[in-house]
Amino acid sequence: MTAMSKSVFSTRSIAKCAILSAIAFILMFFDFPLPFAPSFYQLDFSELPVMLGAFAMGPLAGVVIEAVKIILNLLFSGSDTAYVGEFANFIIGVAFVVPAAMIYARHKTKKNAIIGMIAGTVCMTLIGCLFNYYILLPMYSTLYNLPMDAIIGMGQALIPVIKDTFTFVCFAVVPFNVVKGIVISIITMLVYKHISPLLHR
């Protein structure tokens, strides 16, 4: 590969990452709550372009797209969580996308894509639970001057078995991340083969 072709490849890769990041950023605005989780947990489809980019260009591209998506959100929307929520969004998104892309990159088959996205969903759920239990829920309690009991009560109003922070994470955070992983995975499987020729062009 000549220096010029390397330069073109690099420029094209950067352009693709930029476009996918912009799409992911826009998709962050189209969020909605799920019936089994408090309203401050909003599902959006911004991980879809990240996953598509990671499958097409590798795990590192997924990390870059995820990072640029968060940076764009900070630039245009700011942060009301002292940047901790955005950092958690980045880490949880990477935990979903990177394992999936790494497994898919070994053998680019439909089976590996499914295995990868299952692994990514599991990783995202575990990381999401840890972040919520130790960082996000206490942080939201402090920033919004809400007692933890009030937050737990919001979950209990939807799911009566929620009694404390642990059960909140088990019965609200876990299902939320599992549903998010499943939804993004299904859409990825439906659209990737149609979009991959453009991403590889």
Quick overview of this protein structure:
This protein is mainly α. 79% of the residues lie in helices and 2% in strands. It contains 7 helices and 2 strands.
* Helix proportion range: over 70%
Mean pLDDT: 90
As laid out across the biggest beta sheet, the strand order is: 1-2
Describe the main β-sheet briefly. Answer: 2 strands, antiparallel
* End-to-end Cα distance: 17 Å
Oligomer: single chain
Low-confidence stretches: 1-8
Report strand %: under 5%
Number of helices: 7
> What's the count of strands?
2
From the helix content, strand content and strand pairing, which structural class follows?
mainly alpha
Write the layout of secondary structure elements.
Blueprint: H1 3-27, E1 32-33, E2 42-43, H2 47-57, H3 59-77, H4 84-106, H5 110-143, H6 148-158, H7 165-200
Antiparallel strand pairs: 1-2
Helix pairs in contact: 1-2, 1-3, 2-3, 2-4, 2-7, 3-4, 4-5, 5-7
Walk me through this protein's architecture.
With 201 residues, the protein is mainly α. The chain is built from 7 helices and 2 strands, in the order H-E-E-H-H-H-H-H-H. It has helices spanning 3-27, 47-57, 59-77, 84-106, 110-143, 148-158, 165-200; strands spanning 32-33, 42-43. A two-stranded antiparallel ribbon has the order 1-2. Strand 1 (32-33) and strand 2 form a beta hairpin. Helix 1 packs across helix 3 (59-77) and helix 2 runs antiparallel to helix 3. It starts with a helix and ends with a helix. The model is unreliable at 1-8 (pLDDT under 50).
Q: Key features?
A:
79% helix, 201 residues, mainly alpha, disordered N terminus
